[in-house]
Amino acid sequence: MTVMETTSTRTDSCAAPPNAHRRPNGQDSYTISEVVAFTGLTAHTLRWYERIGLMPHIDRSHTGQRRYSNRDLDWLDLVGKLRLTGMPVADMVRYAELVREGDHTFTERFELLETTRRDVLSRIAELQDTLAVLDRKISFYAEAGRAYESEKAG
Amino acid sequence: MTVMETTSTRTDSCAAPPNAHRRPNGQDSYTISEVVAFTGLTAHTLRWYERIGLMPHIDRSHTGQRRYSNRDLDWLDLVGKLRLTGMPVADMVRYAELVREGDHTFTERFELLETTRRDVLSRIAELQDTLAVLDRKISFYAEAGRAYESEKAG
DNA sequence: TGCTTGCTTGGAGTGCACTCCAAGGCCATA
DNA sequence: TATGGCCTTGGAGTGCACTCCAAGCAAGCA
Questions:
Q1: pLDDT digit string (tens) for chain B, length 154 residues
Q2: Whose CA is nearest the C1' atom of nucleotide D26?
Q3: How far is A113 from chain B (nearest CA, A)?
Q4: CB atoms within 10 A of CB B96
Q5: Chain B nearest CA to A65, separation (Å)
Q6: B13 touches chain A (CB under 8 A)
Q7: Which of A99, A105, A146 lies closest to B3, judged by CA?
Q8: Do the record's keywords include DNA-binding (chains A, B) (predicted)?
Q9: Which element (helix H / strand E) includes A67?
Q10: Which residues contact B12 (CB under 8 A, 6 or more apart)?
């Protein structure tokens, strides 16, 4: 009935985990400390992400403890990547909301990702520009260092 | 007597302004608001940079107002680039101190720049990784959008 | 002479993204 | 039974990089 029948059961509509390496055998339920070990985030941060609406609903054990799924880990993977781009958390929350709202937000999600993509491209360009400056300075200092050494020697 | 005789008179030992486009004719003295216009920084930020030791000594007019030189603009250019790399302001202040301390800090400056260069390279790699993820997601949504349209039509 | 504009200062305030705290529940091992 | 470890919560605190404020000075101009 929709584009992909599996869509509504997934946290993110196009998951497709590239690095599913950190998951043991067949289980699909991790404590917060396991997720801490996997992601490098702190437990504080994981709970905070949940509070601000950046996470989908996280399962709980019968005692009320969080039990993260592989899907949750995939989502955290994406969040981590987006974070590296400098995307504000608020924008990621917006994206999470769109995912929760269902298939009719596909267009908006597409646009958000497109915008992000453009941002990433220009950040890469900026960094390459900076790299050129650094290289110039570094070779200056390397040369200056050599000259200094030979001056000491001679 | 040292590696480069002009060294000690320059803010940064290997300036070599690549984009000296924003400087009028022959003058070498700009008000804070001109610098604001050139750099996109706010006057607040420029004064703050000075307070924390990120700037060399800035000239003053007879009434005590700041008068920035081309050298200062070059330095701000570098600072702007380093800022884009995510380098903490404290590290930039450290670099500024090394420059102020004179030629004997060449090695340390070299190492700081080398470290920064490596950071920039890995940031670029991260961003390219993220770009790949975004591209995958974007093409998913593009396809989903097309499928949705054809479903509506058929 | 007063008004406006632009600048000065130290210090206080802001927004973001965490980061931590106190108080307490659950459960396994000694 | 108690000790330790891991987890829970709401709310407060932190660090960074600005960002703003109030009070005041100097210059240009009606």
A1: 333 333 334 445 554 444 554 555 567 889 999 999 989 999 999 999 999 999 999 999 888 899 999 999 999 999 999 999 999 999 999 999 999 999 889 999 999 999 999 999 999 999 999 999 999 999 998 887 777 666 666 5
A2: B63
A3: 6
A4: 21
A5: 31
A6: yes
A7: A146
A8: yes
A9: strand A66-67
A10: A137, B71, B74, B75, B78, B99
